[in-house]
Amino acid sequence: MHNGWIVSGTLTAQKRSVIRLMDVVVCISGIKGVEGVAGCRFSDAQDGEPDSIPVQDGCVARLHFTPSSTQTETPSAGAAAQHAALNALAQLQARHQSSSIDAKIDIAPALPTGRYRNIAAYYSVQNTFPNIYAIGPNSLQADTPDYRVAQARQLKGYLMLFDQVMANQFAQLANLGNLFSFGFTRAPVSGPEDVGTLLTRPDPLRGIPDQPAIRTLFCQPLYNVPDVQALLLGGERFHYIAPDDPADARLQSQLAWQRFQRDPFNAYHYGLVQAMESTESAEQRRDEMLSHLLARHGEPADLYNAMIDALQWSGGMLKTRIRVKSTWLLNLQALSSRRAQAGDSWLAAPVTPPGRYRLSQTDYRQWKMACPPSIAPLIDALYLKSFDSPKAITAACARVTLPASGSNDAHLTLQTILRWRLHLKEAILREDGNRRIIERVRNEDEVCRHDGQWDLAKLERQSHLPEQAFADFSTFELKCAILSGLPAHLRLLAATLARLLDQPLFIEWLSAGCATPFRQSERDDPITGDVSMQKNAVGFALFIGSQCVLQLPDTPSLTASDLQQYVDQLAWLGADRQGMVLVEEGLLQTDPCVTPPDDETPMSGLSATLVLPDYVTLTGNPAFLQSLDMLRQLHWPGHIALRIQRCNVGQMAALINAWCQWYNLRLPDVTASPQAALSEAIPALLKALQTVGSGRSDDGA
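Below the sequence we write its predicted structure tokens.
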């Protein structure tokens, strides 16, 4: 009945000669669905043997079950009970026959679940000792002799060494995920955080000694060991009484113990962290782990180290490597999936040419929704335009001819139009490019100056490339920006010049003829604290410390408006682009079939030009050019030629203006300009490229 066949071992058993009633009851009780047998008897049993029936040789017993009532009832009650029993047996038989073999098989079983174990929650071995040793919880009484207390503490101090080793090992196991994590906001597990309820305000300094961004060896303090306060170094300095402390001595002692635990710089915890590894060894090990992760993804970490060491600085060589490599790994998935991919013109945002004042895209949309239809042409005329001064904005507004007022705009008088122009001018002036770039550089500088360490939350947000970046830029530009740090460098230079232009002493120095070097008087300024500017044989040089970062050409008289042009261009390259202008000549061919590729023609075939400002000292650095050449070999499509050009501020301005006009005309949602406008923009951009190509070139392709 269970297997569907007769087990071979049962064939050797002899045939029954007697069927006993008890054996039948046991078999019926074992059937699934039968709760119990109230009574059973043989109807054909002989009078002498009512509990058994004989079976003759050569015969097989055939049993027929007939349910019946076991109680003496009325005929109607007995019939009802018999009918209910028959129905129950019929349902049991039908359920058994309708079930299949795979009915008991769950094809989608629930996944097995484990039980979370807090590995860092260490339970001291001292809690397991008998009370006679007086090292467990509440094992020392108030009247315990001093020599007995000294003996218990001596044993506790001996066992604390083993407790600390074991607790540190468990902390290391609990932080295995952090060892191979490349994020900045790693949260190291440091053990139980229960420090009582008297002090409920969290301490913002908690965990600073761990330095989660670089820590590779982890430990945890043994604050949960019974009566450990007297054995830890530096606990006596927290036994002070504040005005709002309770008067009870026991509560004061408990409060001092909580203060000790909450201070991450207490002598015990800080010494424990320093004993695990120094900052230098932690940075070295962390850099090696990040290099290992890069190598597992096929990235040449040794070549990246040379680029990072030569081009970037974030407070230390190893710190800079950790920051850049972590940023690279955070974006590696997106960079790898878009390898050798250009920007997406269908999703890209429009680009405004360099200038101090401009109407941002957010303000443009808000003004379009709020203004009357007759004012919309004025807003469209000022959008994607940049202005050097308030007068330029006023002149641009005056050149716009508004349509005649219809029936819906009967209230739009001349005064109303002038008022809209004034409000629009004030909105554009609020978007001061100098102030924007200074605030951005200060925010970026605060990332590395938060209590002397990195602000990991800000650094994590800044390191992630947004999805829009892959539509606005090519993957090669983004990779160059991460490894070279060129955009951040240009933003710093733009903010430095803008900050100098805000100082009257610097303006007076420019007006006086720049006879003597100018040095910043405010040494505590985070942007211009160590900046100086002087005139040399080539022109005007801007120094940060002892390093020349800008070399401006020699002019008869350098004015503030001349420097503002450099500020606008540097801010545009560092904030709106990735520190460079990349032009693909293949996109400038309106009909590639008409002009076949010619290797002798520099502007034909599959080629691109990367343009850099020559007045930035970094772009002429041999290490920078060598790094660009290495990035070209590693991440640039091999079938496309890449030329690297450096040009002056005038050539750069002409190229940027022509490129912005051509770039915005290619976008589908910016303007509905006819195809003729795009046809006119392409020759202007080609002419600007030829002007750039006639100058200096650092082509290595």
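The radius of gyration is 42 Å.
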